[in-house]
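As a warm-up, study this chain.
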Amino acid sequence: MDSFAPTKEDKFSFGLWTVGNPGRDPFGDAVREPMDPCYIVQKLAEIGAWGVNLHDNDLVPFGASASERDRIVGDFRKAVDASGMVVPMATTNLFTHPVFKDGAFTANDPKVRAFALRKTMDAMDLGTELGASTFVFWGGREGAEADACRDPRDAVKRFRDAINFLCEYVRDQGHNLRFALEPKPNEPRGDIYFPTIGHMLHFITTLDHPDMVGVNPEVAHDTMAGLSFSQGVAQAMEAGKLYHIDLNAQKIGRYDQDLRFGSEDLKQAFLLVRLLEGTTGRPCYDGPRHFDAHAYRTEDEAGVWDFAAGCMRTYNILCERAKAFDADGEVQDLLKDQESWEIDPLLQSYSRDNASKIRGLDLDPAALSRRGLGYERLDQIMIEYILGVRG
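Now compare it with the structure written out below.
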């Protein structure tokens, strides 16, 4: 039995837009034929995926009639049920249609903002009908090239008004949905509002219902900005706001590549899996492991399924490697500092007694500065686990 083969317990999911990507890019036409959503569900189930996610228009064409919409959704629901799959997340496309050329929730034209709200409410109804419990917001057009077109403070307020409005809509409708906001620094706009995880985490604190809203960070988006994705995800987890996550790979400084998970920067991928799976003994992430990526443009359909299987297999390999690394006695010794355990409680909260005890500690900065920490050794051991020559 292949110990790295995916199981339903892994909670691996893909979007219709990921494996269904036809390989079109700004410089070239599609290289693969479109795939029917019901066929995608069937194939994902065959390779061991747990869930399938969608934008509204991945399933229902823009402008479809009510009867056409109901027929498509009904057929898709049957395919999901027959395959044993689930739909854990839904979202709406507020970036493809030309009406969103100046943004959706932040557009200067209030009619465009109204249309964006109406389209999102319809998408929430669709997601709820299919069983989704998370609704993701990626503001791909919420930004600017001509910065003088609006005061960024107006954009922040408009986005806040939209999220508050939609929170109330969900509450009024009785939908079982929580929101996950997805940051990105740029592309397709020159600059996108709320570019990082930290921006989004602060923004959430200004909402009327912050308990309903978390983040959906993506590997590629933080890496595009040269940031450590694992550190950003850790901040979201520490705040209790990691509601969903997009896994892929990316080279620093490139356009948004959405590469197969683990195909670039294995070290960061390892650290991310270690964090999500809680192999250090800390709380783990219990939500979907969603692969927001797509196959190389060089691939035919068979290559698409190789790509999808590869995402899941690499994640499970890194999970096994992380468990072995954190169980290594030498690693545990390097991470321990027995002399600090009695000091730590004094640092966690202020009291006059703690302040007095800290003042009384024997703290020799010269001696502390001479002490080696062993991080070179620790990092080398980690590399050897990643490369498979240890453990």
